[in-house]
Amino acid sequence: MGRVVNPRLRAFAEDDEPVRYDEELEVYVVSSHEAARTVLNDPGFVTDRLDSLLPRLGGLDEPPSSLNAMLQMFMDGPAHDRFRLAVSRDLAPKRVDEMRPRIGAIVDAALDGVADRPAFDVVADVAYPVTIGVIAELLGIGVAGARALLGFASRISAVLELRPTERQLLDAGDAVRGCALFLLPLLPGRRANPGRDLISSLVSLEPGGEPLPVDELLTMIVQILVAGHEPPAHLIANGALDLLGHPAELRRMRSKPGLAASAVEEVLRLGSPIGYLSRTATRDTVLAGTPVRKGSRLVLDLTAANRDPARYDDPDRFDILRPDPGHLSFGGGGHCCIGRALGRVEAEETLRRLFGRFPDLALDGEDLTRRASAAFHALDRLPVRRT
């Protein structure tokens, strides 16, 4: 079975130049693993999502103020540093591993919901319910609360696209405000009676001896919602597709369920849920032989970098025993994905339990499509049936 390719990423993946300038997008596209890793780890390349958006917004002078506050957390600076410090303890590998039994229970509940059905959709019926349940658990807002907030989060995620429209940005600003209005009444109770949830942890923080400002606190929670739902759901769906398309590797994982962790790493390499990362050069430099001027924006094509034949033997082969996957799907440097431990555990537990419980799963048809997005490597749906 061939892989389902997002056509908007195809040009990146098929280009042989390690770094090239794209006239239409007005960015340097970085396709080689070595050059992408250099950009991710060199402090001379920074994240300034706000500055890179403004030149392309037409009549919109600046994003809505509510969205602007969230964008600040994508950018190098004190707001981003405070955010990472605030959530690092709750999302640390040790804390996430303590959550593993509960995550497994959430996965089992999602699988219970399809146990009597001869066919179902892995995206809508498994991946999304799992990540919604985990977000509900992490924030202590209940499944109904998580569903309400994630409806906003899907609209906010449009800001991650290469060319978000003015309408998308205005809608994202409205969605950020909707999230804030939902969350604001919860904060006093969490301060008075804190639990073990992440919101309680955040409201108790006092960097510099003062509580976090309410607007910054709300923005942090929104950021967690955006990053903590769609990417892990797409990772789960991409992993299910990869394993269904490679029966020998699926049998190998079934025979040794502990291989789920290495399977997830190979899925991350070949099917990263995030399509690209962007950086801005703070100085004139030369990258892989290509001059890059200060202020230039670079787009790191993760699809191409993670399949670079200069880095990987037989790069298109799906091999859950690959000794050094070394993918770049979580980024690197000061912006390395802080939720990577949680995303890995969600995918491991879901894929291991999905194929352990339903060993006879098969694709229900070949007509699979991906979302028309450069930001997300995401299946619209993944119909499966029990044979």
TrEMBL record:
GO terms for molecular function: heme binding; iron ion binding; monooxygenase activity; oxidoreductase activity, acting on paired donors, with incorporation or reduction of molecular oxygen. Keywords: Heme, Iron, Metal-binding, Monooxygenase, Oxidoreductase. It comes from the Bacteria. Gene3D superfamilies: Cytochrome P450. PROSITE patterns: CYTOCHROME_P450. InterPro entries: Cyt_P450, Cyt_P450_B, Cyt_P450_CS, Cyt_P450_sf. Belongs to the cytochrome P450 family. This is Cytochrome P450. It comes from Actinomadura rubrisoli. The lineage of its organism: Bacteria, Bacillati, Actinomycetota, Actinomycetes, Streptosporangiales.
